[in-house]
Amino acid sequence: MKTSIVFLLCISVFPGFSQGRVVREDETGFAECNVFFPGQVPPEGYTEPFHVKICQQYNKEPRFATLYSTKDKIPLYSAFKFTKSAQSEEENWLVEPQIDDPENDLHEMVHEADIGGTVANLGANQALTSDYVGSGYERGLLNPSLLNEEDFQMATYTLTNAVPLSPALSKSWHRDIGRVVEQALIPHCSQMDHLYLLAGAIPSSVQVKGKVSVPESLWLAACCDAPEGWSLGLVKKINDENSLADLTVGELENQLLPGVHLFKGSCGEDKQSQEKREAILQIVSQIRSGEQVGKSNNPETKDRPEEKNNNQETSGWVRSVAGIIATPFIKLLELLIYIFVELVKFVFYFLWLVVKRVVGTILDVVYSLWNGMVSYLKAISMVLISIPYDVGRVIINIFLGFLQIVRDVVSLTYRILSIPVGFILHLAAFPYHTICAIPSVLKDVATGIGGTFLLVIDASATVLHGFYYLACHIIKRFVPKSFSDD
Q1: By the 8 A CB rule, do 51 and 67 touch?
Q2: Which of 262, 238, 240, 243 is nearest to 251 (CA)?
Q3: What is the pLDDT of residue 195?
Q4: Are 86 and 105 in contact (CB under 8 A)?
Q5: Per DSSP, what are the bridge partners of residue 19?
Q6: pLDDT over 70 for what percent of the chain?
């Protein structure tokens, strides 16, 4: 059986209001810090646009979670787990770059002194060290460094985990938180890893340098989400630093914003172990009165340690016997519940299979009908579309055939008419060519006759010249020279 413990410290100051630039919530990188909440569910009800969720990382590891108000420049709560008590290290304050400059490449807290000019609008949505200098207020940590070790302790020194507190109030806050967590809460939570702590502040109208809101009250809520858990609440008022009044989770939530739920299911507040609750209240009472846990300044209490031990042993023996007797019945009840749950699961699974099969069959039939209808409409559409195409093609073929017939008729007519026309033309041209040829023929005849006559004359002259030449040659050969000389 899982129940819880809740612890509250409240320090009243003044109520109020302040201004700041709005930065909306972004869940993208916050899931890594859900381990700091029971059931990994952060508090609900913080819905204002200036409420910014921060997963506080240092050396690339999530250390705790914070809900920061950019309007008031203070955290509304820091969620963390107890790691190990340690002495506070030297303060080296850090800032969260993503609050002022969401486009910045720095994705985890960095030292304020080293940030330089790498972050745009630095201080527009968060407090800086300069806001506290000379104000009379200290940077009070919601998540106290003394409840953390090593890197976890270094990570607490971020200004997104700090609120303005007077020096005395800051000292009282850290002292009481440390004693309550170490002496009252941790010893009575059977699993320390299941102890979830929420330290918060309620802003007021009082501002430091007109920028950073001074808390109206501080509170711490703790949830022990483990077997035999319990829940209680405590309040610390500003006018009496040593007073502690007990509260429940519901009473604490009523003092916060409307609709706020700190823990999932109130962390078992209605199923708590009264014995552990009373034991925790007794320790808190000792812390309230300034006594050491386990000791008392009352002489009567000192004289009765043996009686107290005997009562504790008796109550422990009774619880053991009751546990032995109740165990079989609890196991039987668990078995019956398990069988009932499995039967319900089987019935729902069977119904799911039936519904799935029926719905699947109906969908298959509908799908088949749809496919058939689509195919039929597609075929009809194709036929309707092809009709104009086929008609047009037939008309074009008929027109082309008609043109071919006309062409053949014209060609045949031309061939038929070309024969007599040619003959007539040749016959009509014959007289012209005959008459025109007479002068040419006569000229050729005259030329032939003249040529023949000249040829006869040339031949006669040639013959006579030959005879002359021959006679001269004979005379020269046979007639004596002297005779010829005489």
Answers
A1: yes
A2: 262
A3: 86
A4: no
A5: none
A6: 80
Judged by DSSP in three states, 227 sits in: strand
Question: Pick from 296, 286, 295: which is nearest to 180 by CA?
Answer: 286
Tokens (6 digits) for 102: 């969401």
- Kindly report, residue by residue over 136-149, the tens digit of the pLDDT: 999 999 998 888 87
Q: Which two tokens stand for residue 114?
A: 């080293």
CA distance 231 to 251: 12
Q: Rounded to whole angstroms, how far apart are CA atoms 203 and 75?
A: 9
**φ/ψ (deg, to 5) at 2:** -100, 125
Q: What angle do CA 478, 484, 485 make, to 5 degrees?
A: 150
Cα 241 to chain centroid, rounded: 49
- As a whole number, mean pLDDT of residues 252-274 equals 77
196 contacts 110 by C-beta, under 8 angstroms: no
Q: What is the pLDDT of residue 326?
A: 76
User: Do the beta carbons of residue 268 and residue 4 sit within 8 Å?
Assistant: yes
Q: What's at 163, amino acid-wise?
A: V
Residue type, 108: E
**Token reading at 233:** 């609440």
Q: Would you tell me how many other CB atoms lie within 10 Å of the CB of residue 425? A: 9
